[in-house]
Amino acid sequence: MIYNIQFGAGMLTLDVPNKRVVGVMAPAKVATIPNVEDAVRAAVAEPCAAKPLTQLLAGKRTVLLITVDNTRPSPAAMLRPLIELCERQGIRPTIIIANGRHRLMTPAELRLHLGDAIAGTCTVLQHDAFDAAQMVSRGVTRRGTPIRVNKIIFEHDLVIGVGIIEPSYLCGWSGGRKLLMPGLADHESVDNNHFYLTQPGACIGRLQGNPVSDDAAEFAAGLPLHFIVYAVSGPNDEVTQIVAGDPFKAHARACGIAETIYRVAKQEADIVISSAGGAPYDCDLVQGKKAIIPATQAVRRNGAIIICAECPNGLGAEKTFINWLTGKTPAEVIRDVQDRNQFSLGAHGANILARPIIEKNARVVLVTNADVARQLRGSYVTALTDMAQAWQLANLATGEDASVLFIEKARRLIVH
């Protein structure tokens, strides 16, 4: 049978005997709401644990809308009714893109992400985690993360977060406090927070008891974020529900809804073929590598994992990422990432790719573009440009009767 695997804007195909395929792990199918803008208007009129947005806007002079970059679905349909509500109060809101440590978008990318009407008429700023002039300090969390954040949030009467809810291997769930940490945080604060990825409890789908999430919540607790408007995102980025209101209570409600979509029963196989979900979720290896997280749980010992990620924007990470991939063994990576003095997001990326090798003695193969394959030459990840070659290599490692599991939309799956 022919199986299709999302890869960039297109598909890779693979013909696999049915008797070898144990299944496909994928999110649940969902219904799409008919009109996102109407759903936003209804949600902000009857929000969760907060006053209606029109009441919050009364008497305000300035409003800041914090939203996501283009590694996430466009928030334009949610922003438009919020901008309209502000304008009825005589307020022209400012928009800031919470890039975290991601690179800044180009003007063309901004217009594509937000649409001409928003990008051409609103003031749209971008957070730069490396621009010290943007930052102010507001203390330190109990875990030692400097609360160093973009000062713009203190310069507006009302701060509203706008984005999507999806599982996150960083904080358990996206959204809410994540718009401030890492969204608007200083790069050193982000690194300190993300060090806790190496600690027990840091896993996808866990909100409380996750040290990264708990630290981010403490980081955000005393900062201005007055209201949120979030789309619960379906497997194909369709909007399934809009939740608005208190930044913590409404966020928790949205996470509960999303969990019914993305929590799946664990399956196991000798060969696991996993895709993050195509563009934009495999825009670079930092994003595309997230497909390995459920694959690590699903692959059997001595098996093989094939990650399919086009990565047109390259590695998407600092030099530490490639230096560790090519200059250290998997065992050295697993050891050194626990050292706070050596930890960085690049180091953690290398760690994610090393884990199945150490934990399962699995072969890790990446199907990607020629430039990324060239950069990974000599690393502990076998990078190829041809799916047929990757399939052949996986079979050589496991045997031609080995069981096969496909994982779709892998970046969002919560395996239990």
Explain the overall architecture:
With 416 residues, this protein is an alpha/beta fold. It has two domains: 2-28 and 265-415, 2-enoyl-CoA Hydratase, Chain A, domain 1 (Alpha-Beta Complex), CATH 3.90.226; 36-262, Rossmann fold (3-Layer(aba) Sandwich), CATH 3.40.50. Helix content is 33%, strand content 24%. The chain contains 15 helices and 20 strands. The strands form six sheets. The chain has a six-stranded parallel beta sheet, with helices on both faces. It has a six-stranded mixed beta sheet with strand order 6-5-4-9-12-13, with helices on both faces. Strands 1-2 form a two-stranded antiparallel sheet. A hairpin with a 2-residue loop joins strand 1 and strand 2. Helix 12 (330-336) crosses helix 13 (345-360). The radius of gyration is 21 Å and the shape is globular.
Terminus-to-terminus distance: 28 Å
> What is the CATH topology classification name of the largest domain?
Rossmann fold
How many beta-strand runs? 20
Question: If you compute it from the alpha carbons, what radius of gyration comes out, rounded to the nearest whole angstrom?
Answer: 21 Å
Main attributes of the structure:
15 helices; 20 strands; Rossmann fold; alpha/beta; six-stranded mixed β-sheet; 2-enoyl-CoA Hydratase, Chain A, domain 1; single chain
List the helices and strands and how they pair.
Blueprint (H helix, E strand, L loop, with lengths): L1 E6 L2 E6 L5 E5 L10 H10 L7 H5 L5 E5 L8 H13 L5 E4 L9 H8 L1 H6 L1 E4 L8 E6 L5 E5 L7 E8 L1 E2 L3 E2 L13 H8 L16 H11 L5 E7 L5 E7 L3 H14 E2 L4 E7 L9 H4 L3 H7 E10 L10 H9 L2 H7 L8 H16 L2 E5 L2 H6 L6 E3 L2 H12 L5 E4 L6 E2 L1
Parallel strand pairs: 3-19, 4-5, 4-9, 5-6, 9-12, 14-20, 15-16, 15-19, 16-17, 17-18
Antiparallel strand pairs: 1-2, 7-8, 10-11, 12-13
Helix pairs in contact: 1-3, 10-13, 11-13, 12-13
